[in-house]
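Here is an idea for our session: we take a single protein and study its fold together. To get us started, please write out a protein record for me. Start from the sequence, derive the backbone structure tokens from it, and show both lines together. Go ahead whenever you are ready, and we will take it from there:
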Amino acid sequence: MSNVLPSIESPVQLQSMSNPQLEKIADEIRETLCNLLSKRAAHFASNLGVVELTLALHSTFDFRSDHLIWDTGHQIYPHKLITGRYHDFQSIRTKGGLMGYPNPRESEYDLFMTGHAGCSVSTVVGLRSGDDIQGRSDTHSVAVIGDGAFPSGIVFEALNNACELKSKMLVILNDNEMSICPRVGGMGSYLDRLRSNPLYTGMKSEVVNLLNKVPVFGDPTERLLFQIKEGVKAGMHGGMMFEDFGFKYFGPIDGHNIGVVKKYLKMVKDIEGPVLLHVITNKGHGFKPAAEDPVYFHTPPAFELDGEKPIPKSNLKSAAYTNHARDAIFDQMKHNEKVTVITAAMCQGNKLEPVREAFPSRFFDVGICESHAVAFAAGQAKTGLRPIVDIYSTFLQRSYDQIFQEVCLQNLPVTFMLDRGGLTAPDGPTHHGTFDIGYMRIFPNMVVMTPGDANDIGAMLDFAMSQNSPCSLRYPKTEAAEISRDIQPVELGKAEVLKSGDDGTILCAGTQLQSCLEAAEELLKEGLDVGVVNARFVKPLDKETVRRAIQKTGFVVTVEEGMLMGGYGSAVLEAANEMKLDTNSIYRLGIPDTFVEHGSRPELLAELKIDPDGIAATCRQASADAKSRSANNQIV
């Protein structure tokens, strides 16, 4: 077990350690990560890949005053282990425990809560600018960004701005040839050429050997060799694209050699102007199964080791909603040659591998470039194709302007499949898909659907493919329910009444439908007859069903796994107001005006009162209030 890592209370301790000592800590970090995966699912391969880089950074810089931003943030675990959080580490991704992403509330070493890719360079440019304006010229600002995130449009906006400012900053390009899935596009090909130039590769090893032999001559000699090497490299046109952006380019270097990384960091840290250091790492480094299959081991289920073979501890009882969505997409692709599917580096997360393999010419992974994905889909739709944009709810927010301008304003038939619509449990506030109902329903021409169970997904996608306008449907990251019933066909703006009730009505927008039925069943045992409606459509809203529920029953409870502000419940209140109906009997359940922390899905749903017990409790209160109002009216 670990015997050095537990004693690291501050990364300042690393600065006095030798490289062999740091290498021992690296081994202990990997052992700790493997132990964590024996308990729960967590980000794994990406963290294994940055262990040495993390140790080199913290032994070179003092990030109490310097600034460090981890792009995307899922590779934060080694950083947490050496910044005073080792003893709390086993609580990571559990309710009340450490967050699986950077969290400023946990440590002064976490500056931003980062969970979306591509923003680190912009943030570091801003940090550098802020320090310059306030006279703090001796500080350093460092962004660590992966090659999968690097093609994001905002990165090039930041590079352009950094070139203009000409301030001292360091961008570390962590090149592991991967996003979550294998990277795509021209930037990946460019980086591959930098990595594989045979003349440079051979020359690089010779320079490293020289650098390792010159400590007797001191820093000036190291710098001379360094400058000679970089001059030779520049003559071979290595990194010219970055140089053209105004960055001094160094690398590529071996990101798993702590000594080499520390040497380069020390050499570049005080260079004036922006610097890009190209570091080569391997996802899953140090754990053979993860290194061989970094896609699966990006966020694997908890596992036990049988020798070197990991045995998953899966507790899934049924297929997830993502599987049902994938199958529905596959069926559309099979029967209609005009259907395409577009995703943004989430082929594995959206379980689209079978679609990619069966229909490679109509499958498009554009990398972590959501804005481009949506505008690209609009272009396809304009030619007569029927594109399906399959992106996580939280990441689709990055394309907000394109949803407006290129799709809705043009009224183009692009269909949005919003995976992770709702709470993503241990991933926390950066990944909860809680805003999509509100941000989609405000656009003219957009149809917004919320499947009540797995049976709705295929039918709703069929419906969307028949429309000549944009449509969206969302589904959560959880096991899928399939409610037994006489399924009514999907019709524009029509809800599905599953159960009528005299005392009240639950209007459910989404997959809490099973919980609503369970609550109604429990209430019936208590003598309270409550109806349940599968809303299906947030927009256009089934106003007639809403009207009947308000006028014919004692109360209405709306349920949604999304923000109350601007959500389905808000749409019901708006409709009631338009129809001049009394809204005193309408109660809304969903997510209040706050960011929801991480935890297990049952814990979070219970806390928000959108589990069966919470829904039933709200109905009891609504019924009591209705009786009180009725009694008061009789007295008056």
Q: What stands out?
A: Confidence is low (pLDDT under 50) at residues 198-204, 210-218. Residues 453 and 481 are 5 Å apart (CA to CA).
